[in-house]
Amino acid sequence: MHHKPKHSTHHSPADSTHAHAESHRWLLPVLLVAQLMVILDITAVNIALPHIAMDLKMSGSTISWTITSYSLIFGSLLLFGGRAADLLGRRRMFVTGLGVFTASSFASAMAGSAAMLFASRAGQGLGAAILSPAALSIITSAYQGSRRAKALSAWGAVGGAGAAVGVLVGGVLTQFTDWRTIFYVNLPVAAVLLFASLKVVPADTQKPRWRGLDLAGAALATTSLAAIVYGITQAHSAGWTSIQTHVCGIGGLAGLAAFAIYELHIDKPLLRVERIADRAVGGGLVLMLAVAGTIFGLFLLCSLYLQNVLGWGPLTTGLAFVPLALSAGIGSHAAGHVISKHGVRGPLAGSFAVAAVGMFLLSRVGAHGSYLTDVLPGMLVAGVALGVATVSVSMAILTGTRQEENGMISGLNSTGHEIGGTLGIAIFSTIAAGSGAILGPQAASGIGDAFLVAALVASLASVMALALLPRAQHFLAKLALNPQAMPVH
Known about the structure:
mainly alpha; 18 helices
């Protein structure tokens, strides 16, 4: 007589296939939620800035370091994070980045001083720089063909929607609890993500390969960019013509030049500098700095005006950004159709020109202004234009890339976005603090000046787009050979 065992340890091929399909179904949501968490911690903090400044006794342009300490480290180490994912293992780096980000979130929530908060935010930036490129690399290796296109489209949508969701989340949490909750809320989310990632993210099959990690290049790039940002943020107090400002600025630029020379002479560089000679890539990178700086500045200046000048609460301020998010979404959606017919040169020049009009309208904000008449019109005009510009500039950088350099050029695109945003916040917050007041009606003057400078930057970028980018016929020929670079809507 034969008896079947009550519990069999044998799994049929059908069971294995079902388990694989189930884990594959949850892979993309896990990675997208992780990326959303990274994006949220930029715009959510924007809304909480006045409360953070009051609690930790910050003043002037020092406040901006709450954001720049995060975005600076995030942006300058993205290329290194992508390289580390390739050499050390995608899942290993994803889990490591998640751990660093979570620990730094807890430290940010517990911060008792401005210096502690800035250091903890830098730790968050490090975690994000490890996590984000690893997640994107997992997507590109796990999905093929049309499924990859849809997955990458969802990834891009999270980046855009994250900014809008961030201001709402930041508004709700700051209004009803405390600014520290913005960081505390990352802890349970990260715990769920860690558990899920160990279940659904494919395990690394190769041992870590430490040779080829360009630590020297990463350190040189990060230090140089930090020197430039520090020089800008301290220029108001130290003086634009001071020795400190010149040393930081010239030293930072010299460091970036040294980074470029160093990368040209090593076997496995973080960045193939010669690719910047391509007009679409190099011109697109310059314009990415402009568009990201303008967007980050728009969020920061509007938030400061609504809360510090008009006296709005965090929740109302968060809701006030919904029209901006919607208008930017409309612009992003329209960009794909415009680019496919007219290339990127014309649309970018036009969108920057329209963004300049929006910023000029915002520069007229007064001490006793109104959201409906002084903020909303400029916000809507600038939002649509910057939505078009963001997609167009990414298309300029990514189109025509060779298969083997997709990761590097994508990393360059993301780096330009974060570094541009960092520089934008440093410059515009310094100008906004120029009036000597960051609270009350008298702060409107400095904020208006900063919007006016943003209008000038957008106008200059419009002219640069015509000078730097390839003509439509050349660009569209490249796009025809690389249609997957076109965003999917």
